[in-house]
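Sequence in, structure out.
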Amino acid sequence: MKCIIIEDELPAQVILKKYLSKIPDTELLNTFQTAMKANEFFKENTADVVFLDINLPDISGLDFIKTVKNPPKIVITTAYPDYAVRSFELDTIVDYLVKPFSFDRFLKAISKVESQLVKPKASEKEAIYLNIDKTIHKIYVEDILYLESDRNYIHFVTSTKKLTIIDSLKNWKETLNQKQFVQIHKSYIINLEKVEKYTGTTAYIEGEKIPVGRTYKNNLLTL
């Protein structure tokens, strides 16, 4: 994933660079302190995602993005939460990070970007990144069988491994593609492509029996 940072505050630049350096398969192409300098870059170059501050010295980040032809995905980084509603009026904006934000929150933004990027090659599979004991684990979305909630923990289960993080099922329901990943129980989200059979109260995935809650049944059947 090719990235650009447009941020006039040097400490914020340092944090973003540090976070990006921890994530596999990401490349920071350039960093700019003003929108005008970034504009020169976009005349001849492209990127997958821009980490964009709103309050820039020459023009606001939101106004700048409107001037870019075929703009990349945008993750807003700002100290001002008041712009959130206005920013999401732009289709290219994927997430809104309010400073100071944690590395885990940054990872969620990266995962959202990954889920929205159009992959030019079949070999380039969509991935998400999980921070577990200060180690970043890359997991391909198509390999996920289901997510299981266990109090304050979420288990990501694949055919070969089980990764556990501190988080809520609600957050990942909003992050993952909701046509592919469906909540079927208060404690489970499943990958529809992995369902082998369904009995009305149970979904079977690679021999695992996943209960289907009453309130989720109709939506599951529709999908």
